[in-house]
Specification:
Layout: H1 8-17, E1 21-24, E2 27-31, E3 34-38, E4 40-43, E5 54-59, H2 67-88, E6 92-99, H3 100-107, H4 110-118, E7 123-127, E8 132-137
Parallel strand pairs: 5-6, 6-7
Antiparallel strand pairs: 1-4, 2-3, 4-5, 7-8
Length: 138
């Protein structure tokens, strides 16, 4: 099993505070004899605004010296997981969870906006100090 991201528990708490029920920690994707591990799986509870929605959340901290390297790695994982989810759990939407500072410094820039648009990237932006979901994109 892979090592947990530094923000794993923060994002878990933020999702619960936002009304999600954590159903998988991690969410295991099995295909062709291989297992991959998305950090979290969550469902919206019955009666909630998002009733019936299912999400998978891959958490990325972007703490290496190169945010471009971190972006390349994150996008590769995101593409692989989205492909597998399409085959195994098509009703579950994949989100890339990033701290607010990463959204403001990378994903708000022209390159980041291009990536969001062209890769159909779904982002969960969180406040790592308050353990709070700041925004969902889209």
């Amino acid at each position: 099993m892979p090592r947990r991201d530094v923000y794993h528990d923060v994002v878990r708490r933020a999702l619960i505070a936002d009304g999600w029920t954590i159903t998988h920690d991690p969410l295991i994707l099995s295909y062709g004899g291989r297992d991959l591990f998305v950090d979290l799986g969550a469902d919206a509870p019955l009666g909630a605004e998002r009733e019936g929605r299912k999400i998978a959340v891959e958490i990325k901290s972007f703490v290496s010296p190169s945010d471009m390297h971190d972006l390349e790695v994150a996008l590769g994982q995101y593409a692989l997981y989205r492909t597998l989810l399409g085959r195994t759990e098509a009703d579950r939407v994949l989100y890339l969870a990033v701290p607010n500072r990463v959204y403001l410094s990378l994903f708000s820039e022209p390159l980041g906006q291009l990536v969001i648009q062209e890769q159909r990237l779904h982002l969960l932006v969180f406040d790592d100090e308050k353990a709070k979901v700041e925004k969902w994109i889209p």
